[in-house]
Design goal:
This protein is α+β, with helices and mostly antiparallel strands and 154 residues long. It has 6 helices and 4 strands.
């Protein structure tokens, strides 16, 4: 009798394993955890921009971005942009987050797995939107592939 009961329990477990494999085998990060990690990477990138750590930021860029721009060009453009905003930003807060399978690129739309984060940040020249695009690369890491500073109204 005990053997028959064990076989029944084994059968039920096997069926559950086949029907619900993802819940049993691997714990996936929740959307909130994923979003928090993406926002954190974006925020660190912008803080490093404010601290003028442009070479370190270049090395954080994704492969797609590094293929488009050399380290020297990135550092030069980041330095000019940093001067234009008048110094470090403060009061940075995330105001938008979106997922997408495409992103604007220098030659049109590019496709992949992207996340977009927008921060509202106060710079010495005024309120600015920081738009950061990250791409999930082959190693499952999110890396910055595009960023823009846009004057915010008011």
């Amino acid at each position: 009798m005990r053997l028959k009961r064990w076989n029944f329990v084994t059968w039920v477990v096997a069926v559950c394993w086949l029907v619900f494999p993802t819940g049993v085998v691997v714990a996936q990060p929740t959307d909130q955890e994923d979003r928090a990690a993406i926002e954190k990477k974006s925020k660190v990138f912008m803080e490093e921009f404010g601290a003028q750590h442009h070479v370190a930021n270049y090395r954080r860029l994704g492969q797609r971005a590094q293929e488009i721009m050399s380290e020297e060009a990135f550092v030069a453009q980041s330095s000019i942009l940093r001067q234009q905003v008048g110094g470090e930003g403060g009061g940075r807060r995330a105001i938008d987050f979106q997922r997408s399978q495409r992103m604007p690129g220098p030659n049109g739309i590019v496709y992949g797995e992207f996340s977009f984060v927008r921060f509202a940040t106060r710079y010495p020249v005024g309120q600015v939107y920081e738009d950061i695009y990250l791409e999930k690369e082959a190693d499952d890491e999110w890396r910055v592939v595009g960023w823009w500073l846009i004057p915010a109204p008011g």
